[in-house]
Design goal:
Number of domains: 1
Number of helices: 2
Helix content: 10-25%
CATH topology: Alpha-Beta Plaits
Radius of gyration: 12 Å
CATH architecture: 2-Layer Sandwich
Distance between the termini: 25 Å
Largest sheet: 2 strands, antiparallel
Shape: globular
Order of helices and strands: EEHH
CATH class: Alpha Beta
Number of strands: 2
Length: about 80
């Protein structure tokens, strides 16, 4: 499942540099997560790094993007293959 940032976001800027997939960017009002790039840090870390650093806990799982760990790993492999 990809992650999402809710309206509770305070634009503190700490999540964006933590994302190893560059899935987080500044949106019109708050930061946003590109679900096509979000792997919940599968392939990089044991825990989603953005959730670890968020001071207001506004980064839950996105219920509209249900993905298994295997699907997230496949996405990670495709994203890292594109970087090579």
């Amino acid at each position: 499942m990809a992650l999402m940032i809710t309206d509770e976001c305070i634009n503190c800027d700490v999540c964006e540099p933590e994302c190893p997939n560059n899935a987080i960017s500044q949106g019109a009002e708050i930061y946003e997560i590109d679900p096509n790039k979000c792997t919940e840090c599968v392939g990089h870390y044991d825990e989603p790094q953005c959730q670890q650093v968020c001071p207001v806990d506004c980064i839950p799982l996105n219920p509209d993007r249900v993905e298994s760990k295997d699907q997230l790993m496949d996405k990670f492999l495709k994203l890292t293959a594109q970087k090579s």
